[in-house]
Amino acid sequence: MTDTERDFGQGSFGGETAAAKKKVSLGTRLSSTFDNALSSKKRFVGLIFIAMIILAFVMTGIQALIAAATFLNEAPGENLTYFDIFWASFSKILSLGGEATWGQRIIGVLYWAIAIAVTGTVIGFITSLIQQTMARLGKGLSPVVESGHTLILGWSPRVFPILKELSIAKSSEANPVVVVFADQARDLMEEQIASRAGDLGKLKVITRRGSLSNPADVARANAGEASSIIVLDSDDAGDAGVVTTVLAIRANAGDNHPPVIAELDDVHTAATLKSATGGRVRSVRSQDVIARVTAQAARQPGLASVILDLLDFEGNELYYAAAGELEGKTYGDALLAFDDSAVIGFQTKTGELSLNPDAKTKIPAGAKIIVISEDDSTIRFTGVKKLDWKTRVGKAKAVPAQNLLVVGWSAMGRAVLGNLAEYLPKGSSITILARNQFVAAEELKDITFGDVKVSYSNISGDVAEVIAVAERHHYDEIIVLGYRNAMTRVEADAQTLLTMMQMNQLFEDDSNKVKPTRIVAEILDSSLLPLARVAAADDLVVSDVLAALLISQLSQNPTIAPVFEDLFDADGAAIHLRPVENYVPVGEKVSFAEFVAAGRAAGQSVIGYRSASAGKDDSSKGVSLNPSKNSEFTAAAGDSLIVIASE
């Protein structure tokens, strides 16, 4: 065998390595062993115990050697030297015992050094454990021990108005708790909640961090013992993330988990989840709700504020009440049977919903009356009242064709205009203006909404282009939509505010032919609401607030979901504002009970009154929802009754 073959065989495939094995010093080995021990509590304790045994053996040997050396054990004479005096001072500093002989001094110093080393090591290890524990607790990784809490899974801008609403809804509870569980840094969540949710009263908000798709992480949120669960769409993961989170809940809490309100986009996904979970998971399609309410707000001034009043926990809310003495009586009888609550329909014991049925409809046994009331405690049956108002109901005037201008666009624009088109009279038209850098022309190509005439223009954003379009027609209304798909929420709202200010500037400029027109604007982020009011829109639809209000309502009362779905749908019963002069002559003082009777004669359920003068500068004002039946109003030109009607 040649030398080359020998080297090849032994170096590459033999038992010896080509390179010499690296020598590791004893100090390096000890350092590595100690480092490994720090990663385990048991290893560390064992290492310290072994070290103490070894040191004890070493010290035993040293003491034996010192005892054998006679000169180290001689006691000092009566005349102390300068060093003896120095040692006395030095030993006090080291907390030694003032040893007399050199042997004792050596042993004392060695014991002192060992004690300092061992004690310092143990203290350092304990300090490290404390720091690790505090850091872990600070990350929000500990389990939730509370029960009966409202659990919010996920993080989005809707979490802040949801917390505000829950603080109101739970104000009567002794120790209300909401747990926010999301894959976000805990300090970030708490900082934003403090700055954006504001004063939450006695509501206790607990934050925890973890993966929403990991059942082991979700288990730390104690979902099984929550009173209700809200699953938010993060706006990034979409429906897939929400569905995964719901599955993680069911993996932990089983099929009989608390009611879940899941924020979804796709109608088919929502239906599948509801069916697969036996109705324990109800969905809120935020964009659909926003689109419908925007369409409702565009129909009539003040309608958005009525809807907001129904959705929030301040003022009036929707409730079910047992029919009781109204069983077998007519719906018309029920309308005047509650002095402090407004009746809008009933639900049969089989769950069939009937909003604003014919006044002659009999209320079946076991039915529940659907009412608007300030609180469940204010729902009091006050007896059936006979009040005939048939001769005083006027005929509603036909609504002329409408010309609408839409400035801005997003994927939600189709849903908004699709809902709105169902309310528009025959011959109405919609003109869409969208900036070409944010919306491609193909997106608006061949867009149609039933029989409504639709036209669109891609513009660069120059004010002159807007003026040119606005001068062509007198528009009955301008709807400003945010470019939510082309930029961040803040940027989209900034663009909306700029558009609103431009439109108002055009109205005030006498050099053009643009006439003042009502503006309805969509604001994505509620934190910019004060700026939007300065920009002077007539009606504002605040997207994150709308979705948050509905989610909050359903988290506290999931069974009310079908009522909201029916009210927001263009088909069937919906909320309308009708001129008061259709019911009574202008200038006449009328009790609200008489208004309810007048509406009953017209096939409508009257739920409130809107004063045009009070809402002249701000359409959110002037609305009186569910006033007492004994309260009186003097009908004025421009005032409206708020009614539930089928058309």
Describe what you observe in this structure.
By secondary structure, the chain is α/β, with parallel strands linked by helices. The chain folds into three domains: 34-72 and 87-138, no CATH class; 150-279, NAD(P)-binding Rossmann-like Domain (Rossmann fold), CATH 3.40.50; 288-571, NAD(P)-binding Rossmann-like Domain (Rossmann fold). The chain contains 20 helices and 22 strands. A six-stranded parallel sheet has the order 3-2-1-4-5-6, sandwiched between helices. A six-stranded parallel sheet has the order 13-12-11-14-15-16, with helices on both faces. It has a four-stranded antiparallel sheet with strand order 7-10-8-9. The longest helix is centred in the N-terminal third of the chain and has 37 residues, at 102-138. It starts with a helix and ends with a strand.
